[in-house]
Amino acid sequence: MKNATGLFFDAFANRNRFNILMQLRNRDMCAGDIQQTLGIEQTNLSHDLKCLLNCKFISVRKDGRKRIYRINNETKNLVDEVGKHVKNYETYLKKCGILKEEKNGRV
Amino acid sequence: MKNATGLFFDAFANRNRFNILMQLRNRDMCAGDIQQTLGIEQTNLSHDLKCLLNCKFISVRKDGRKRIYRINNETKNLVDEVGKHVKNYETYLKKCGILKEEKNGRV
DNA sequence: TGATTATATGAAATTTTTATCATATATAAA
DNA sequence: TTTATATATGATAAAAATTTCATATAATCA
Predict the structure, then answer these.
(1) Which residues touch strand C (CB under 7 A)?
(2) Which region holds residue B66: left if phi is over 0, alpha if psi is between -120 and 50, else beta?
(3) What is the span of the domain harbouring residue B48?
(4) pLDDT in tens, A36-45
(5) Domain count, chain A
(6) Is the pTM above the cut of 0.85?
(7) What is the pLDDT of residues B75-85, one digit of tens each?
(8) Is residue A106 part of a domain?
């Protein structure tokens, strides 16, 4: 049985999901907009949005046949904190040697 | 090529490595102490400590044939921020439905 | 010096996570 | 009321991460 911290990181530290949170930091967006901006495949995006919603990291409202997603404030702040840390440690992360640098990047 | 955010989460959001950071938040410890406290297998612990060192999330000093590890201050703060968020969202994380709760937990 | 304790290394095996695929539903417009 | 658009669901395939295994090194002590 995984504990709350494990579940938290599974939700938050996932590449696509964190990218979505970073986008929503700027403005509310519907799924289609996020899809276009990040290039995430439709079904993956839908899975990811549901996860973020269930965890209450984001909320949603309806507008016609679209659904508009918004990041909550606490989560936005944490995204910012992480952003700072990444910036400060970027150099070391890149030459860690244990972490692998393959794959396509986050935004 | 994975970017800095991806590398950051690989280092920081890993179960064993985050548990190590949580322990070091309380006091400096040598590998043996961490091993006993967290029950991480020796070679895994060594891999994890090297990763955290290379990323500069922790530092090390020698004491006889032991090595004493210490968390840096910025990283300690981020660990605390994450802790708060986990606490606030724990209920939702546990009933997310997409995140899986198997496996053994973090401390 | 040789033995012992503490920690490190690298490759292979296992497990877990993430993406893909086929398909479903919900709302609105024609 | 049929069609098109927007988004959701669940099972499996593919990719990546973590653990295990065999072994190495480094410092101290007898």
Answers:
(1) A 2, 10, 14-16, 41, 43-44, 47, 62, 64-65; B 30-32, 35, 42-43, 45-47, 49-50, 60, 65-67, 100, 102-103
(2) beta
(3) 4-94
(4) 999 999 999 9
(5) 1
(6) yes
(7) 999 999 999 99
(8) no
